[in-house]
Amino acid sequence: MSTEFGLFEGPWMLTWEEDVDAHALRRQGWSISAIARHLGHDRKTIRAYLNGERVSGYRRQSPDAFMPFLEYCRQRLSDDPHLWASTLFDEVVELGYAGGYSTFTRALRRYKARPHCEPCRASSGRDVAIIAHPPGEEIQFDWVELPDPPAEWGVGANAHLLVGALAHSGRWRAVLAEAETFPHLVQAIDAVLRRLGGTARRWRFDRMATVCHPPTGRILPTFAAVAKYYGAGVDICPPRRGNRKGVVEKANHSAAQRWWRTVPDGISIEAGQNGVDKLAMQMDSRKRKIDGASTTVAALAEAEPLLELPTRPFPAELEQTRVVSPQGLISFAGNHYSVPPGLTGAHVTVRIRLGEDDLHVVTAGRAVIAHHRRAPDGAGQTVRDAGHVIALERAVLASFSEKAPCRTKVRRPPSAAAQAEAEKLRGRPESDVANRVVIDLSHYAAVADRLRQAPTHEDQECESE
After folding, report:
1. How many Å apart are CA 305 and CA 97, to the nearest integer?
2. R_g over Cα of the chain
3. How far apart are CA 326 and CA 342, in angstroms?
4. Tens-digit pLDDT profile for residues 105-150
5. Strand 202-205 vs strand 233-236: parallel, antiparallel, or unpaired?
6. Do residues 175 and 165 make contact, with C-beta atoms less than 8 angstroms apart?
7. Are strands 317-323 and 329-332 parallel, antiparallel or unpaired?
């Protein structure tokens, strides 16, 4: 049976032999009822075949459940021709699609919903060898730079996602970071390991400058201390050998295509982290076949013997720059912390040591201006120091004025200067405006007063000169 083209054999349909017999008997003058009794079928079925309404070997097509979603799929694939079918399937399921994934992908191909992309045509690949990874042996780490993040994240042109994948089972987890510096790398590694539930015996990296010396591949002393703290060995990939860590590369691809392409604007970085966590857990349901037995990624990962993690993260010192709000607050890890008043718009540095519960705010001159107990990350709490609150209230009250505010409901017509400017705008030449004769009677009054008095000897001398 083929559901795509409708081929079907069943007792309520005529075979090709029965179809031929029915037409032959009809030509011989048999009635439809007689043919139906002879062939063992219903009269309506025989009539439909004789009238050409039905064809042997084919069944009637039921209404396609995909049709109501066809235009949506075409629009989404027109907007993003490289959108994964699995991502689109998740979207239409939320919209009410009740079919299976294989039926959905067949419908996409049948209706040619995805536009053709000539530069991305499949080409012959290179040889790939399958590398065996014992359970609990290796975790592969890699940074993914995600372009055009939401402006609310404040991370610049790219968001930074550290992905860690268990090489044996394929389970992966990922953590968003504000940068790829050494403290951010240590913080992200610890967060990934705690999401995985432990650490493998070895870590694999490409030639990250925060892990090793890229030209030689030798581990940096700073990162060696991190590896010893967690009790893991470190393996560095040879240059230009991306296949050597193909498990995490595939996880990177899934995160970029199934999560990042659909991240909307206007969400917080905490909401973005929740989205990638949801996808990573959803990917644990992928099917696997080991030695002929079917299983899942989640079952394989649960059976991996991972090493226990230290109680606290490696004590790296993390610094991040923040801008003080008009309320005297700075944001950090999904919470807000107070600073002294008078710093609105200033850039300050938040300094923490991983594994500790304290947070310090320092100025550019390294002067500590605030110290707080950290709230849980992403809790949305506002932590205020009592002294900061009192000082801010005093500063606000001191800025108040006892003078009455200006009256707004007054009549103030345009002044003479404003009218002169209006005359210029009306198109009159400036020379005409400047040469206008203005009669001022005060000049005449001054001349009249002088003529009333008899001229003095000094006035006469001035006139003679």
Report:
1. 40
2. 41
3. 9
4. 999 988 888 887 766 654 445 555 567 788 999 999 999 999 999 8
5. parallel
6. no
7. unpaired
